[in-house]
Write a structure and sequence with these properties.
Layout: H1 25-33, H2 50-53, E1 60-62, E2 65-67, E3 86-88, E4 91-92, E5 105-111, E6 127-132, E7 140-148, E8 153-162, E9 167-179, E10 185-200, E11 203-218, E12 221-225, E13 246-260, E14 266-290, E15 295-303, E16 306-323, E17 326-343, E18 347-355, E19 373-390, E20 394-410, E21 417-421, E22 424-433, E23 438-449, E24 468-482, E25 485-501, E26 507-525, E27 530-544, E28 562-571, E29 578-587, E30 590-591, E31 599-600, E32 603-616, E33 619-628, E34 636-640, E35 643-646, E36 651-659
Parallel strand pairs: 3-6, 12-14
Antiparallel strand pairs: 1-2, 1-5, 3-4, 5-6, 7-8, 7-36, 8-9, 9-10, 10-11, 11-13, 12-35, 13-14, 14-15, 14-16, 15-18, 16-17, 17-19, 19-20, 20-21, 20-22, 22-23, 23-24, 24-25, 25-26, 26-27, 27-28, 28-29, 29-32, 30-31, 32-33, 33-36, 34-35
């Protein structure tokens, strides 16, 4: 399945976080060390509504619903996942190989600005906060069945089974067939299991496992143009690749989290996680050197079996000191990751030029794969952090850490290449309550970031790229317009090395990119029946370096100049349980080539939906119907210089959820 993939809102107007009285110091330690997020209604699925439950419009996922201007792979133009800013229940997690499925996740949110408070040791680009479906001490189950206008269908089941008063079991599974907009499809199933054990009031242990199996997943069309032009047309839901080029994969993640309060005002937390992705067979379908007549070179890249693994985790000791209205927390932490990645050995099959919509009906070849390249990344960080909270005045967060990063690339027939780095990293963020309704904040951070792999259209396709140093400055404010209606405005400045293609089509460091911008969020109930989650950013990227010295006004590929997304949910007063919702999304034009000769035009799309919550035979049910891209707007996504995917057209979907 392609891509499986909250900030706790303070109800007190104008305050940053809640102050806890000294007699509840242990609870304060837990709340500070692990920012707490109340689940959106126990374990049920019928109450899931991302618009009404989002605490800002920067990025939020709940069940099947997602909203916001940012994602786990793109915040302010960069990736928080690459920056090492993903957390499971507050602890460090490396999801580069495989993350967590919805069967295990209750919610996922992107935290920037003030929402970063309470997360020590963050790098630039914000934090991706993952919250698990923790089983409680009440038995229950939820099921969901879904379908869509393309012919896809799926079923889901989640359940909680208390075994004793201190031991609970949660489990779930889903299966289905997905029909994608580009005409490809797949069959999948995934499963999850989570155990929660509380042997004493001072100890909690969580253990989880989830897996994903993907079958018959065709490699969709990737358009690579020869000249300064967009592709002349798209496939409109018709797959033209080789019928045998089906991707087959098995992936799994497992983890163990433990919390232990050894004494008053002390808390020890630990998390250990493992991810494995086994690609039994994989293919890439490229339409190379496309022209305006709709012809391209049809190339299939076949990969041998590749198994990638990642281990990550964190051990943290926290101590709380109370001084009347002031609360101080110190964190001493050790975290790290180890990745073992495979790539290479591919076989390139060239089937000549033809119309891009002509089916590639060719027999399956006998593959002759080459040897694999083995990349290994080992990184350890140790750091000390301080968090101070002064009731009614503000907060301060400071952290310093030392990274020990090492990478080894072992290419076939060549000596192993080693690289290492041991930089000092830091972050500072401070907020001040100017009055009951206005909070201002400012912060800065320096981080070490993984750069991923070279894109599929590069000569060094799949090669692991070196780690880079990033930096960030930010400032902003939060205005409380009503008890739960907040306006957030922030400005930011991020810098990092910039990767691009050289004359030999190798993807490498070509200079640096600086993203300056403004971000806005308005979220919460406007009235008792109308809720809003609206966000926007305006981005001004700038390139510097030898490769762009003659044209510093050029923009980096793939970054829109603006993104606006606004969602509304209205509970109809004359029909109990019925609500209507809509979403508007506007994206500015996007540079698509290095010389900025081609831009993907700006576009605006609309989505409409509704949900009806009702009760039958003593069970809560929700019927949800939605239509995305109502106007059937077509267009392209620039995924690399001169390389494009077609966006999804209009589609309708429906699901029925039942809490048993």
């Amino acid at each position: 399945m392609r891509g499986v993939h909250v900030r706790s809102k303070d109800e007190k107007s104008g305050t940053i976080g809640a102050f806890v009285a000294p007699r509840h110091i242990m609870a304060a330690a837990i709340a500070i060390a692990v920012p707490w997020h109340a689940p959106a209604g126990a374990q049920g699925r019928t109450d899931e509504n991302a618009i009404t439950q989002a605490e800002d419009a920067f990025g939020f996922s709940l069940g099947r619903e997602t909203l916001g201007i940012y994602t786990a792979g793109n915040v302010r133009g960069f990736s928080p996942t690459s920056a090492g800013n993903v957390r499971i229940e507050g602890l460090y997690f490396d999801p580069a190989v495989f993350g967590l499925t919805d069967r295990l996740l209750r919610s996922s949110s992107v935290r920037v600005g003030l929402a970063e408070q309470g997360f020590p040791f963050i790098s630039p680009t914000g934090v991706v906060d993952l919250r698990l479906r923790k089983p409680d001490d009440q038995a229950g189950a939820s099921s969901l069945a879904a379908t869509d206008s393309r012919g896809g269908a799926s079923v889901e089941l989640d359940a909680v089974l208390p075994l004793t008063s201190r031991l609970s079991l949660g489990f779930g599974g889903s299966a289905g067939e997905t029909q994608f907009a580009d005409g490809t499809d797949n069959i999948y199933h995934n499963e999850a299991l989570i155990v929660r054990w509380r042997p004493s009031p001072a100890v909690e242990i969580l253990s989880f496992w989830n897996s994903m199996s993907d079958y018959d997943d065709e490699a969709g069309q990737t358009y690579v143009m020869a000249g300064a032009a967009l592709p002349p047309r798209e496939h409109k839901g018709r797959f033209s690749g080789a019928p045998w080029a089906d991707i087959r994969s098995e992936s799994a993640s497992a983890g163990l989290l433990a919390s232990f309060a050894p004494a008053r005002n002390w808390l020890v937390r630990a998390g250990l996680f493992r991810s494995v992705a086994d690609y039994r067979q994989a293919f890439t379908f490229l339409l190379l050197d496309g022209d305006q007549q709709g012809e391209a070179q049809r190339v299939v890249i076949a990969d041998p079996r590749i198994v990638n693994r990642s281990h990550s985790g964190e051990l943290r000791l926290s101590h709380v000191v109370s001084e009347g209205d002031r609360l101080h927390t110190l964190h001493l932490s050790l975290w790290g990751r180890r990745r073992a990645l495979q790539s290479g050995g591919s076989q390139i099959l060239d089937y000549g030029r033809a119309d891009i919509q002509e089916p590639l009906n060719v027999p399956r070849p006998d593959f002759r794969f080459g040897p694999l390249r083995h990349d290994r990344v080992v990184q350890w960080n140790a750091g000390l952090a301080y968090e101070g909270r002064w009731r009614g005045r503000g907060e301060l967060g400071v952290s310093v850490s030392r990274a020990d990063y090492a990478k080894r690339i072992a290419a076939p027939g060549a000596p192993a290449v080693d690289s290492s780095s041991r930089p000092w990293l830091y972050n500072v963020i401070a907020g001040a309550n100017l009055n009951r309704f206005l909070v201002v904040y400012a912060g800065m951070a320096r981080g070490l970031e993984e750069s991923g792999q070279a894109p599929v259209s590069a000569a060094n396709r799949g090669q692991a790229l070196p780690a880079i140093i990033t930096s960030q400055r930010e400032a902003g404010l939060r205005v409380t317009l009503a008890p739960r209606l907040h306006l957030i405005a922030g400005i930011f400045d991020l810098k990092k090395p910039y990767f691009n293609f050289n004359a030999a089509n190798f993807y490498e460091v070509a200079g640096s990119v600086e993203n300056r911008g403004l971000e806005l969020s308005l979220s919460g109930p406007i009235t008792d029946r109308l809720s809003v989650a609206a966000g926007a950013y305006l981005l001004r990227p700038r390139l510097t370096g030898q490769s762009v010295a003659a044209a510093e006004d050029r923009l980096p590929v793939g970054l829109p100049s603006r993104l606006v997304q606004a969602s509304l949910d209205w509970r109809i007063p004359w029909v109990r349980g019925l609500s209507l919702d809509g979403r508007l999304s506007n994206q500015g034009r996007v540079p698509a080539t290095v010389d900025n000769a081609v831009f993907v035009p700006s576009r605006t799309t609309f989505s409409l939906g509704g949900r009806y919550r009702f009760n039958a035979s003593g069970k809560d049910l929700t019927l949800r119907i939605s239509v995305s891209n109502v106007g059937n707007v077509s267009g392209w996504t620039a995924v690399a210089p001169g390389t494009y995917y077609a966006i999804s057209g209009r589609s309708a979907s429906a699901y029925l959820a039942v809490d048993l």
